[in-house]
């Protein structure tokens, strides 16, 4: 089912192995490369957030409430709970006439260490606004307010909001709505069980919205551009997702998710989704960096900026380098990759 993707070395020995699957799909839906069995299904969690944001833009909600590009970006984010992220979510809630008590995403401490320590030192517990999904939830509440839908149970499968989101997931992935396996995500809303090939297809079209119906193209391009131009909003300080788009955003749009899923789309090229079998996110950056070498000619300066992710170091509690993480897979090329890389300097 899964094949070896990454070896984790401690000194000379391979201490751990991360298996997984990879799907590379062109914007017209053709699978052009893979590792493992990419037709197997897994849940598409936070990596689906840009698709969940589409009706907020396409249905006129973003214009009605005058949402900024940064606010659209935070709706697609798994943010770190930094000051910028919290300010953006509060701004969205203010514009729609709600406060953070309307959020039903649950609580956890901010991913950002400084933001977490600030709460702890003030002897404060995190509220829903610090949840990494609060941007998405504020956007979904905006969609509810715009349509005069109930905001108390917006997370429920039968709610018109969740049925609307399922429609867009089906459209972008090409999976029929009634064939999508549904479950409950970490933040309480509906989550989607799909083959990773279909996740990759959706990102190929997020990056290349000209392959979508003409009435959706401007909205999808607006979400893509908001993410690319505001990578610090989509993730946060020191996060791979943010660093990747800060360095290579002229070529791609990317979004990670829980349990080892990461999706990206290349402008003028394919969509890619990886799934790490054991869900360990440490395996994601070296896999993505190796895949990018197949499709994008990054400059020496760009590669230097991302070098820490190519072969991530393993360190101990004394901050000594004790090993490294290396990708080991080879792509099974099923179709034409394009001869030359899709994007070059």
Mean of pLDDT: 95
Principal-axis shape: globular
- What CATH calls the topology is Beta-lactamase
Q: Which class of secondary structure composition applies to the elements?
A: alpha+beta
How far is the N terminus from the C terminus?
A: 37 Å
Domains, number: 1
Helix fraction by DSSP (H/I, runs of at least 4)? 25-40%
**Oligomeric assembly:** single chain
What are the low-pLDDT stretches, counting only 5+ consecutive residues below 50?
A: 338-345
Order of SSEs, N→C? EEEEHHHHHHHHEEHHHHEEEHEHHEEEE
Q: Main β-sheet: number of strands, strand sense, barrel status?
A: 9 strands, antiparallel
**Would you identify the CATH architecture?**
3-Layer(aba) Sandwich
| Total beta-strand segments | 14
Count helical runs: 15
Assigned CATH class:
Alpha Beta
Strand portion: 15-25%
Radius of gyration: 19 Å
What does this structure look like?
- This protein is an alpha+beta fold.
- The protein has a single domain, classed as Beta-lactamase, CATH 3.40.710.
- It is 38% helix and 21% strand.
- The chain contains 15 helices and 14 strands.
- The chain has helices at 49-52, 54-58, 61-64, 69-75, 83-95, 113-121, 134-147, 160-173, 196-207, 217-229, 231-234, 240-248, 284-295, 300-305, 307-310; strands spanning 3-10, 13-25, 31-35, 41-44, 181-184, 190-195, 252-257, 261-266, 271-276, 296-297, 313-315, 321-327, 332-333, 343-344.
- The strands form three sheets. Strands 1, 2, 3, 7, 8, 9, 11, 12 and 13 form a nine-stranded antiparallel β-sheet that branches.
- Helix 4 crosses helix 5 (83-95), helix 4 packs across helix 7 and helix 5 (83-95) packs parallel to helix 7 (134-147).
- The two termini are 37 Å apart.
- Residues 338-345 have low confidence and may be disordered.
């Amino acid at each position: 089912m899964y094949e070896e993707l990454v070896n984790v070395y401690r000194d000379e020995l391979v201490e751990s192995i991360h298996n997984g699957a990879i799907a590379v799909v062109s914007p017209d839906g053709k699978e052009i490369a893979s590792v493992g069995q990419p037709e197997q299904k897994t849940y598409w969690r936070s990596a689906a957030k840009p698709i969940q944001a589409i009706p907020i833009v396409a249905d006129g909600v973003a214009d009605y409430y005058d949402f900024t590009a940064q606010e659209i970006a935070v709706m697609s984010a798994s943010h770190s709970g930094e000051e910028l992220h919290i300010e953006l979510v509060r701004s969205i809630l203010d514009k729609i006439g709600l406060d953070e008590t309307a959020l039903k995403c649950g609580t956890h401490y901010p991913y950002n260490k400084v933001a977490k320590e600030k709460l702890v030192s003030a002897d404060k517990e995190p509220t829903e606004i610090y949840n990494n999904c609060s941007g998405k939830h504020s956007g979904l509440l905006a969609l509810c307010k715009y349509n005069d839908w109930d905001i108390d149970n917006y997370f429920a499968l039968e709610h018109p909001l969740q049925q609307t989101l399922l429609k867009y997931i089906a459209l972008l992935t090409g999976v029929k709505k009634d064939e999508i396996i549904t479950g409950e995500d970490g933040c309480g809303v509906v989550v989607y069980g799909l083959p990773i090939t279909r996740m990759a297809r959706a990102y190929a079209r997020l990056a290349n919205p000209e392959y979508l119906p003409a009435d959706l193209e401007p909205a999808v391009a607006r979400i893509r551009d908001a993410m690319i131009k505001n990578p610090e909003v989509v993730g946060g300080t020191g996060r791979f997702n943010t660093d990747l788009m800060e360095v290579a955003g002229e070529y791609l749009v990317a979004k990670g998710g829980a349990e080892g899923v990461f999706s990206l789309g290349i402008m003028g090229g394919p969509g890619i989704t990886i799934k790490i079998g054991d869900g360990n996110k440490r395996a994601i950056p070296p896999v993505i960096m190796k895949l990018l070498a197949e499709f994008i000619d990054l400059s020496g300066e760009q590669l230097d900026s991302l070098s820490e992710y190519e072969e991530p170091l393993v360190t101990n509690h004394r901050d000594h380098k004790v090993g490294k993480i290396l990708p080991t897979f080879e792509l099974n090329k099923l179709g034409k990759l394009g001869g030359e890389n899709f994007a070059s300097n």
